[in-house]
Amino acid sequence: MANTSEIRNGLTINHNHDIYVVVEFQHVKPGKGAAFVRTKLKSVTTGRVLEQTFPSGHKIDIVRVERRKYQFLYIDEVGANFMNNENFDQISIQEDFIENAQFLMEGMEVEILFHSETEKPLTIELPATIVSTVTYTEPGMKGDTATNTLKPATITSGVEVRVPLFVNEGDKIRIDTKTGAYVERVKE
User: Fold this and answer.
1) How far is CA 107 from the centre of its chain?
2) What is the pTM of this model?
């Protein structure tokens, strides 16, 4: 057990039967009364953000976590299969556990956050952006570029994204994996 003097950004703690990461903290010493630590915590499992105030000296339970790089292999009936890049161990994780799993591409490198003591995977972080090829989209009308109009396009993984009118079939585009939004067309 540690106390509030050890709180810092990025610290992982066990709070209210869930694991949280400290996103932001502020040590406050009012002119009258006891000091306290105001924190903004983000749940590792649900992504929910909550603000929590701890009295100075309050005991907190620090959780050790490890980030490991894994390579995505394939999806089968068990779930998504990943391989550790260092020791070649393979793990399978249920697809609904992965946020934005539709953007997983074969060979993609992801970071998996593990609870050090239980070896349980907590979160899977995809790269911030991916590059994919447009497999189908309607052709844009010539001269129709005055507005920021978007059209649907299907990428290699089968996901439909909204792209500007100038994007054609065969173009490589960069996509934000958090929002699924088009970022830019990639030159080859």
Assistant:
1) 18
2) 0.74
